[in-house]
Specification:
By secondary structure, the protein is an all-beta fold. It contains no helices and eleven strands. The radius of gyration is 13 Å and the shape is globular.
């Protein structure tokens, strides 16, 4: 059974930073492309970033490029999202995903 457990969310001021983590189990993590998506209040799911199985290639939505960094530890079966220069528009529930499977999400609130 695929299990994805996100953590690290919280409330920060604009310009602040947060690092999200996603603990993965129940599938071959090191062989899986992993994804971060988010859902802002009242909006649909928005793709944020992908990382290939070995971690050598990453992709970002234009809205986060240059501010967010996706990474992974295939030893710890953990996916990360380093978020810098946070904006109010980054407020959302953030989910890690493998294919159609998602975790329960972690809330990120950017507010002054």
């Amino acid at each position: 059974e695929v299990q994805l457990v996100e953590s690290g969310g919280g409330e920060v001021q604009p310009g602040g930073s947060l690092t999200l983590s996603c603990a993965a189990s129940g599938f071959p993590f090191r062989a899986s492309t992993m994804t971060w998506v988010r859902q802002a209040p009242g909006k649909g799911l928005e793709w944020v970033s992908n990382i290939t199985p070995g971690g050598s290639t990453t992709y970002y939505a234009d809205s986060v490029k240059g501010r967010f960094t996706i990474s992974r530890s295939n030893v710890k079966n953990t996916l990360y999202l380093q978020m810098n220069s946070l904006k109010i528009d980054d407020t959302a529930v953030y989910y890690c995903a493998r294919g159609n499977a998602r975790g329960q999400g972690t809330q990120v609130t950017v507010s002054s």
